[in-house]
Every structure is written in C-alpha cells, then in structure tokens.
Design goal:
Length: 207
C-alpha cells in the first residue's frame, strides 16, 4: 500500500489507481526525489503543479511537506477519482484545502493558464507512450508559466532519451534509480547579444 512518506500527513495511506494503465512512482524513487527537493528548499510554501498525476501521490506528498498549493492534473476518469480521494485525505490531514484536482488533458489545461509566474515546482511523470515531440511541447508551455527560481522534474524510463528542453528551460541535474530516470530543469537565463548568459531570471513569455 502506498503511503505519504513524511511531513504532516506522514504515514497516511493513499488510494491507488486500479489496473495497470498507470505507473506509480516507487517509494524508493519518491523518497530520493523528495529528499533532494527538501534539501534544495523547494517545498516550503511552494506552488506545485503535478502533471499526469495518476493517483496524485507526488503532489500530495508535496502538500504534506509544506507546499502552499498543489494542483493535480489528470485526464483519466478513474485516476482523477483516485486523485480526488487522496486530495481529500491529505487536505484533512493538513487542515486546509492545499490540494485541488483538475480533470483535463495536460495540453488543454496549460492552454487555459496565461504565461506568468504561476508555479515554483512542476512534477511530471508522463506515460511512456507520450512521444518526445509532445513532451517537448508540454515543457515549452510549462517554461513560460514558472516562477524565476522554479524547478521542473520529469520522470522517465531509464531507456528514454533526455527530454528536448525548450529555450526557456535548462538542464540542471539528473539521477537514475534502476529503471527510472529523473531529469531536473530550471528556467534558462536570458542570453545577451554577445551570446553569454545575462544575470537575473529569464523574462516571462507574453501571449
């Protein structure tokens, strides 16, 4: 049974999506990921977006560890229902409505959000069949909606190539855990006329 690992709701059991259509993050990978995010100070009061949320286990873990708001985006009906259950469970544990669920395709959800500093942390565990071009398009849409010091985490199969980062994102780090590869990216620095990176965050892309 999957549980919240740490934080206010640590030890609370979570519902799982029935069947094999979703691929939950293993406890080993989840613990390693959140230990790193804690060390980077990325969770306290963060605005978090969990794309392709599945059961919502990553997003609700962030809420338990101090995230200010968490949005779970999931298009599958059964998975979205599980997200709702887990959101209610964690919201009760933290005594506030920290987690909300958006039943939508990721691309459609992002299209409705105007460019700007909406999120400090974006967690993405896209399904393996998602093509690299589609993933790149989603990353491009995410890049223009990040806070200056934000972090994007993409969970992929260890056999998948590195994501094609758009101009607005720069590879920060990556870690491999068995069959899982975690890729970390941050907003790219703007480039000056001489081709060197300028100080300060990249400006938001206007619609």
């Amino acid at each position: 049974m999957t549980r919240i690992i740490a934080g206010i709701a640590g030890g609370v059991p979570l519902a799982a999506v029935p069947g094999s259509a979703t691929r939950p993050t293993t406890d080993r990978v989840k613990e390693a990921l959140f230990s790193r995010l804690d060390a980077l100070g990325m969770l306290s009061r963060a605005r978090v977006l969990d794309l392709y949320a599945g059961s919502g286990a990553l997003g609700v873990e962030a809420a338990s560890r101090g995230a200010s708001t968490v949005e779970l985006v999931e298009s599958d009906a059964k998975a979205a229902q599980v997200c709702e259950r887990n959101a209610r469970t964690v919201n009760e544990a933290v005594s506030r409505r920290a987690v909300t669920v958006r039943r939508s395709k990721v691309s459609a959800f992002l299209e409705k959000v105007p460019p700007g500093a909406h999120w400090d942390l974006v967690l993405m565990d896209p399904p393996y069949p998602l093509g690299e071009t589609q993933l790149a398009e989603v990353l491009d849409a995410v890049a223009s909606r990040l806070a200056p010091d934000a972090l994007v985490v993409v969970e992929r199969s260890a056999r998948s190539p590195e994501p094609a980062w758009p101009a607005g994102l720069a590879h920060y780090a990556d870690r491999k855990y068995g069959e899982t590869h975690l890729w970390f990216a941050e907003p790219a620095m703007p480039v000056g006329p001489d081709g060197t990176e300028m100080s300060g965050p990249a400006p938001s892309v206007e619609a």
